[in-house]
Amino acid sequence: MQIKKRHPWIVLASILIFFITFIIHYTDAIDISIKNASPMLMLPLLTAFSMFSQPVPAAAAGLITGILTDSAAAGTLCFNSVAMMLFAAFTAAISNNLFNRNIRSALLLSVLTSLVYFLLRWLFFYAFITNIEDNITYLLSYAFPSIIYTNIFIFPYYFIFRYFYRRVNA
Amino acid sequence: MRFFFRSRQFKIILAVAAALIAVSVAFAVIGGRMSPQADIIGTVTAPFRSLAAKISGGISEFVSIYTEGEKLSLENAELESEIAELREQLADYEQAKSENEFYKNYLEIKDNNPSFQFAAATLISRDKEDPYMGFVINKGRVNGIEANDPVITEAGLVGYVSQTGLTTSKVVTVLSAELTAGVLDNRTNDSGILSGTAELAGEGLTKFYNLSRSCNIAVGDYVVTSGEGIFPSGLLIGTIKSIGSDKYNTSIYANIEPFVDFSEIKGVMVITDFEGQGGLMPDSGE
């Protein structure tokens, strides 16, 4: 967040939102998957946070989120750390310089981020270990439904961080 | 925007990304270990995730009491019809006898394999983007767990440890295309290779392939590990659900329904040591 005044409760609330989302996403607390479509909750969360941040804090949040994700995801090494840090930095830079901070921009950035994320994930972890049929199955049955489902979650996160942003800059 | 790309901040971010990529490459070459930063964060957050896993289990049970009444009555009706079916099956004495023998053998696996050393572990997080249902357990190198250690439940083989951290480890399941294991039909001793596909994983199945056309496998047969590769022999995997001809060669394959319900796993056993550990993985041949 671009914090002009001291608002420790907003920082605390943001950290809590990240942590709760992570716990929900990586444990069986609430299973929100629909068949093979499993939303990657960390992406819209990071997109919404980065839209109202400067690139460096956004990159730091992306890096920490990515490391947390790498510690829980299967066999990803540093993939999530690198991807989420860069996504967050670029989202913040684009929001600060090119886009308006509105829900349409948030949705566009979230769609782009999730599309690139799932395609990179497919490229690094599935494209070369299975045959063509399996690759197509992964893309059509898992990746694309998950991308669509993931982007639904940009709406709540966008409005939460917009509220924080307005409180901070009021 | 141009200023951002020329800024020192952007160069620092790129340098961090380059360093992380270098670490990834180094650890991918070494193999079997989590990256150091994920290991540290994983170790720090493991107690929170264990707690969250316990709380989530409690919440799920509590909520299901109130929300699944209708579902339970449907399940009850289904179970009653299953009981009737099972009564008919019990009439088939030979089959029942054969199954009893098999279960008796399974229970004796541990007695028959005194070299097995176990480490009990609990699932602490699940990778929901992984179509093969991989997960993380709360035991790592400090508990004697190493990469390629087999993971089982009382129902059968779950998979193997793919990466170890200090106090956590990642498990690849038998549904995964990454896993390749030598297996055989317990009744006929026909051998082949087990490996998953994304399509079958969606249905909770895995594939037993490279079987000779002259083999005698049948639907309903049990499939166990052959001892070739990283798994000890005799670990139960599942039953043959269907049989088909391979499109690309003259062999046949079978779709296997594992005994383990991967969506319900809470606790597992890791076999940290057994006689013959460290064997080579079989060649997939595909």
Summarize the structure.
Chain A is mainly alpha-helical and 170 residues long.
Oligomeric state of the chains in view: heterodimer
Task: Based on Cα principal axes, name the global outline of chain B.
Answer: globular
Number of domains of chain A: 1
Uncertain spans of chain A, ≥5 residues at pLDDT below 50?
none
Biggest beta sheet attributes of chain B: 6 strands, antiparallel, barrel
C-alpha termini separation of chain B: 49 Å
The CATH topology of the largest domain in chain B turns out to be: Thrombin, subunit H
Unreliable segments of chain B (pLDDT under 50, ≥5 consecutive)?
282-286
Q: What is the tally of beta strands of chain A? A: 0
Task: Describe the overall structure.
The complex is a heterodimer of chains A (170) and B (286). Chain A is mostly helical and 170 residues long. Chain A has one domain. In chain A, helix 2 crosses helix 5 and helix 5 packs antiparallel against helix 6. The mean pLDDT of chain A is 86. With 286 residues, chain B is α+β, with helices and mostly antiparallel strands. Chain B has two domains: 55 residues, no CATH class; 185 residues, Rod shape-determining protein MreC, domain 2 (Thrombin, subunit H). In chain B, the strands form two sheets. Chain B has a six-stranded antiparallel beta barrel with strand order 1-2-5-4-3-12. In chain B, strand 6 and strand 7 form a beta hairpin. The N and C termini of chain B lie far apart (49 Å). In chain B, 38% of the residues are buried. The C terminus of chain B is likely disordered. The interface between A and B is large, with 52 and 57 residues.
